[in-house]
Amino acid sequence: MDTQHDIALTRALTGIPGPLPPSGVIHVAFPHASRFTIVGNHLAQHDGLSLTAIGIGVHIQSLPAGSQVGIKALTARFAEGETTIAAALRELETHGYLHRTRARLANGRVVTRTVFCNQPGALLRGGAVVPAAVTPTPVMRPVVPDPVPDPVRDPVPAPPPAPEPAPVPEEEERPPVRVPSRIAPKPPRRPLPQPRELTPELHRAASALLADLRRHAPELVLSEDDVEELAPGAAAWLERGAHPDAIRHALTTELPQPPKYPAKIVRHRLAVLLPPPLPGAQELTPVHRPPVTPFQTCEGCDRAFRSPDPGHCRDCRAQYWEAA
User: Fold this and answer.
1) Minimal CA–CA distance to 70: which of 100, 42, 41?
2) Segment (H or E) for 200
3) 48: Cβ–Cβ under 8 A, 6 or more apart, which residues?
4) How many whole angstroms separate alpha carbon 187 and alpha carbon 87?
5) Distances from the Cα of 164 to the Cαs of 62, 130, 132, in angstroms?
6) CA 231, CA 233: separation in Å to the nearest integer?
7) I need a surface site. Which of 33, 166, 191, 212 has the fewest CB within 10 A?
8) 313 falls in which pLDDT band (50, 70, 90)?
9) What is the largest CA-CA distance in the chain?
10) What's the rounded Cα separation, in Å, for the pair 275 and 240?
11) CA 186, CA 180: separation in Å to the nearest integer?
12) Where in the chain is the domain with CATH 1.10.10?
């Protein structure tokens, strides 16, 4: 069988017009007579999708209308786990190939409607949709490769018209699975702190502190370039009044094991754990508030009024003055 296969492949290669490429893949393509799906290169060669997402997208596009394409169904079909498949479906949603919306039926039941668009760009441009029949009972079966025709003896049949896309029926509601997207942008790294004035004495003290870290943590072996790059960060700590022992404790305590990138660990801790500047004497001075006049009880009408000394309220004093 191997000899026959090699002979057929050699004969097929000789029938390819033009010189063969010196390296890379060589395509031996025969028109499909049945069981084929047209897939655009925008999906097969998408530079923003993972290989798993591209494969699941091609698989969904090849299924008949009404097929179950949920996480459970795809996990039962493929070897990938639920987390990987859920992340791939989220990627397809992000790039417009897959749409999952909830709809309420006339009987009040809420369902999830899954729609796969083979050309998201045409959907945004408002392209026309070709109607297709809905397959009543989808059946998932293993893919059987088509027999390879003999390019010399067997006539090549003309390809049939492309299958028309079919509307996706309603599916029962399933709770959505929240999976972090692998293509989500990472937060920007906090910059290395800088002192207000990097004097030679401050730079020398910061460099000595960084070079001395390996005495207290043998894992933190920094190169000369690392020390030169990280010296301004340590100088900012010293400028803010941090004691060298406190800086050394912050940089060497509870290190990950094993620390693969010592310079990145030191840089991260210098930026994240930077203490605030020491407050001055003016900030530490308590705020003096004006004295509050206490309440007194009027000796004439027992009404409360503010006064430093006990006695009569304003109204009672006015009555006494009028009587006098």
Assistant:
1) 100
2) helix 200-211
3) 91, 95, 183
4) 20
5) 11, 6, 5
6) 5
7) 191
8) confident
9) 138
10) 7
11) 12
12) 25-172
Q: Class for domain 25-172, per CATH?
A: mainly alpha
Task: Provide the total of helices (H) and of strands (E) in the chain, helices listed first.
Answer: 13, 5
* Whole-prediction pTM: 0.39
Note the pLDDT of residue 139.
41
Q: Which run of H or E residues covers position 98?
A: strand 98-104
Q: ∠36-149-145 over CA atoms, to 5°?
A: 40
Task: Give the Cα separation of 210 and 206 in Å (integer).
Answer: 6
Flag the least confident range among 57-71, 78-92, 107-121, 201-215: 107-121
Contact (CB, 8 A) for 118 and 40 = yes
For the four alpha carbons of 129, 130, 131 and 135, in that order, the dihedral sign comes to: negative
CA distance 237 to 248: 11
Give the residue carrying structure tokens 């508030």: 289
Q: What is the CA radius of gyration of the chain?
A: 39
DSSP string of 42-92, one letter each residue: HHHT-TTS-HHHHHHHHHHHHSPTT---SHHHHHHHSSS-HHHHHHHHHHH
Sequential DSSP letters for 258-295: S-S-HHHHHHHHHHHSPPPPPP-HHHHSPPPPPPPPPE
- Residue 53 amino acid letter: A
